[in-house]
Amino acid sequence: MLQILRNKAQSTFIQIVVVIIALVFIFWGVGTNMMNKKEVALVVNGEEISFQEYQKAYDQAIQSISEQFGGNMPKGLDESLGIKQQVIDQLVQTTLLRQGANAMGLRVSAEEIQKQIVSMPQFIDKGAFSIERYNTLLSANRMTPNSFENSMRHDMLADKTVRDIARFATVVTEAEITDLYNLDNETVSVKFVEIPFEAFTKDIQVDKAELKKWFDTAKDNYRTEPEIKLRYIAYD
Q: Quick check: 34 and 51 in contact, CB under 8 A?
């Protein structure tokens, strides 16, 4: 099946099917459960998202917008922007992408997370990553290193999932497939004849004067490091 999809990836029909699958994947199994359980805010494909997680994401969104207004967000702006729904949509999307990543066998290693964090400009001080600045900024945002790194893991998993889906849906032309096949299966036929050098030495005449002149100009190329010969007797 995957081979058929790969071969027919340029088909408009297949691309429409991929879009439909993606839409079903996004909306299937998503539900809200705020009224039934105070501790559960959302349920996505059977996975519960706690109200604490929702509140944390909401607070971070409010803080981010407030900073754009000097720390004081105009009254009613959060409702006019639909911040609550935006936060819910973001949590659902992130959860679905993470679930998709797990289903596809994608993983993010601790080394990948560390490499990403040390390259983030907000943690750079004097041209290098600063652990002090890292901890200070996390504390200011009411986050621990563990919670921040888990958040990074989820974001990076989501990115990997999107990239893999994009690669699958990319249109591949017949010419590109042919070129790749030819490249992988290209062979070279070589024929050679071995000629011993002794067959030519008898016809070579060397002028000793010319040879000495050449050696005098190139003798440094043949100079070796000083060597010492020693003889010794070891005794106790």
A: yes
Residue in the structure block whose two tokens are 């050449």: 214
Q: Which CATH superfamily is domain 2-177 in?
A: Porin chaperone SurA, peptide-binding domain (1.10.4030.10)
Note the pLDDT tens digit of each residue in 152-200: 888 888 888 878 777 766 666 777 777 777 777 777 777 777 777 777 7
SS3 50: strand
* pLDDT at 109 > cutoff 80: yes
Name the nearest CA neighbour of 14 among 168, 160, 178, 161. Answer: 168
Residues in the chain: 236
Q: Helices 131-140 and 145-169: crossing angle, nearest 10°?
A: 90
- DSSP character at residue 220: G
pTM for the full predicted model:
0.46
